[in-house]
């Protein structure tokens, strides 16, 4: 496998546009949460205009030397007027302090959301008087060509943005539309099969932000894209729109997206008590939605793996978890599922908990705390039953399900309470 | 002590609170959908739409104003971890 990029020289991407990034073929784990079977690349670019050179993104700190050698093969430091960081994560900003030092005439263009990240990542004295905040509608003038900016937050940090070079039809998209796939042949029509990596990257990095993905797609889909130049992985010059379409498909709601509200009851049960409570919760939910406006489902966690449940949860509107308390805690299958939910967007869904216990009953409040930390709404107190649930306990479970369903339907009775009663 | 009423529209709950309470102190207790990150007015996770009664909240600090600006927050939006209730009736909704 050989390519011009094997050498420490810049690679032409389009007229006046060069790739000046670095390859990291030995990386096997990225950000703790991703595996990388053949490493990754840190893509950075140089854009030459009649009145200056812009550098778009940098590389991870320990790849700086390669980055600077590639940069020096296409530009002098005193030509650099503009440095754009589309994303400040250290794998893209590691060489920034040194670049600012070597190119003292350059301004640093970042999104407004990057302000606090700049403060947290870099010595403020190195940035003084150098930073310009840009958003959608702003541009940077390179003379005969301009860079335009699209504010595209949460792809996958608050600061992320895309930069558009209309003169060459190149979209510099940062992590958006990227992937961890290291191949020195660099371009999507020359590298090996990276479809798996592209989808895998979406699922592990972008999926929790899929609403933001859709908003960003709305912004860029109408552009006459010739090339998508992401921050990682192959440069997409052949059929770039196919990758945009793929993101559209990956980020689209699943089947029945516009159908009835979905309420999922997950439980696990040692002796059947929590299971019967779960059935009462589900029956209560059904009773609130006899017109079929809420689709109620019951799942035994013992009978499934976490991943398909995560897929279900991504599309659901309300989640109710039932766990017995064992040794002062909810049980492991419940935590396995709850710890997997950072992979999807659960913010704003309704959550609730219930379960039987022997003598202390910590599981229910612990699950409720976790649901709140996952940014769910937890408007109802959970139901705990000591050992064998009583008729009153089942009634409370039925009511819990009923009320959760009413909340989903926007039919919950308004409540007025005094704050003093909440302590 | 002066009191105020805060309605969390997403869960249909109105809470009577003492003046001086911050939205964060009450929204978490009732399980409203306003979510929190840093809780220190920096991350903007708790951005909240003030549906009505905006004038019954203490004016945003310089820091809160800057964070709202950085995050392109629309008008009548506040950080729930910072916004202090002064009185009257306020209706809020997660942004």
TrEMBL record, chain A:
Organism: Candidatus Accumulibacter affinis
Protein name: FprA family A-type flavoprotein
Pfam family, one: Flavodoxin_1
Leader sequence residues: none
UniProt KW Plastid keyword: no
Superkingdom assignment: Bacteria
UniProt keyword terms in alphabetical order: Flavoprotein, FMN
Listed transmembrane segments: none
UniProtKB/TrEMBL annotation, chain B:
PROSITE patterns (UniProt xref): 2FE2S_FER_2 (PS51085)
One of the record's GO molecular function terms: iron-sulfur cluster binding
Domain 2Fe-2S ferredoxin-type as annotated: residue spans: 2-95
InterPro entries linked: 2Fe-2S_ferredoxin-like_sf (IPR036010), 2Fe-2S_ferredoxin-type (IPR001041), Beta-grasp_dom_sf (IPR012675)
Name of protein: 2Fe-2S iron-sulfur cluster binding domain-containing protein
Organism: Candidatus Accumulibacter affinis
């Amino acid at each position: 496998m050989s390519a011009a990029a094997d050498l420490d020289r810049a690679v032409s991407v389009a007229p006046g546009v060069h790739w000046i990034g670095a390859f990291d073929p030995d990386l096997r784990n990225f950000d703790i949460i991703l595996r990388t079977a053949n490493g990754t690349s840190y893509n950075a670019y140089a854009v030459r205009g009649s009145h200056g050179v812009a550098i778009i993104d940098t590389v991870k700190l320990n790849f700086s030397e390669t980055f600077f050698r590639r940069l020096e093969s296409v530009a002098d430091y005193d030509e650099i007027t503009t440095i754009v960081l589309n994303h400040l994560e250290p794998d893209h900003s590691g060489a920034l302090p040194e670049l600012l030092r070597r190119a003292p005439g350059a301004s640093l263009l970042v999104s407004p959301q990057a302000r606090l990240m700049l403060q947290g990542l870099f010595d403020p004295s190195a940035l003084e008087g150098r930073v310009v905040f840009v958003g959608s509608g702003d541009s940077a003038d390179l003379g005969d060509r301009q860079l335009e900016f699209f504010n595209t937050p949460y792809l996958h940090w608050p600061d992320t943005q895309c930069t558009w070079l209309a003169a060459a039809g190149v979209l510099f998209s940062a992590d958006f539309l990227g992937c961890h796939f290291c191949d020195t042949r660099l371009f999507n029509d020359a590298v090996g099969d990276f479809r798996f990596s592209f989808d895998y990257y979406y699922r592990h990095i972008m999926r929790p932000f899929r609403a933001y993905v859709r908003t960003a797609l709305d912004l860029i889909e109408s552009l006459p894209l010739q090339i998508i130049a992401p921050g990682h992985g192959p440069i997409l010059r052949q059929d770039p729109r196919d990758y945009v379409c793929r993101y559209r498909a990956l980020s689209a709601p699943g089947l029945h997206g516009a159908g009835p509200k979905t309420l999922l009851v997950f439980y696990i049960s040692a002796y059947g008590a929590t299971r019967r409570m779960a059935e009462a919760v589900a029956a209560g939910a059904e009773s609130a939605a006899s017109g079929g406006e809420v689709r109620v489902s019951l799942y035994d966690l013992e009978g499934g793996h976490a991943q398909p449940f995560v897929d279900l949860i991504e599309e659901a509107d309300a989640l109710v978890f039932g766990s017995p308390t064992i040794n002062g805690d909810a049980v492991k299958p419940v935590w396995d599922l709850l710890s997997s939910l950072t992979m999807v967007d659960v913010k704003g869904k309704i959550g609730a908990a219930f379960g039987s216990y022997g003598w202390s009953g910590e599981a229910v409040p612990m699950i409720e705390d976790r649901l709140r930390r996952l940014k769910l709404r937890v408007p109802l107190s959970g139901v705990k039953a000591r050992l064998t649930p009583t008729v009153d306990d089942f009634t409370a479970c039925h009511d819990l399900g009923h009320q959760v369903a009413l909340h989903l339907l926007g039919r919950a009775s308004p409540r007025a309470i005094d704050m003093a009663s909440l302590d | 002590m002066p009191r105020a009423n805060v309605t969390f529209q997403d869960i249909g709950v109105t809470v009577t609170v003492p003046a001086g309470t911050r939205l964060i102190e009450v929204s978490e207790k009732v399980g409203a959908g306003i979510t929190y990150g840093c809780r220190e007015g920096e991350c903007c996770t708790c951005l909240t739409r003030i549906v009505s009664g905006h004038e019954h909240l203490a004016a945003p600090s310089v820091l809160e104003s800057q964070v709202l600006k950085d995050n392109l927050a629309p008008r009548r939006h506040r950080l729930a971890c910072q916004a202090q209730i002064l009185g009257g009736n306020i209706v809020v909704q997660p942004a």
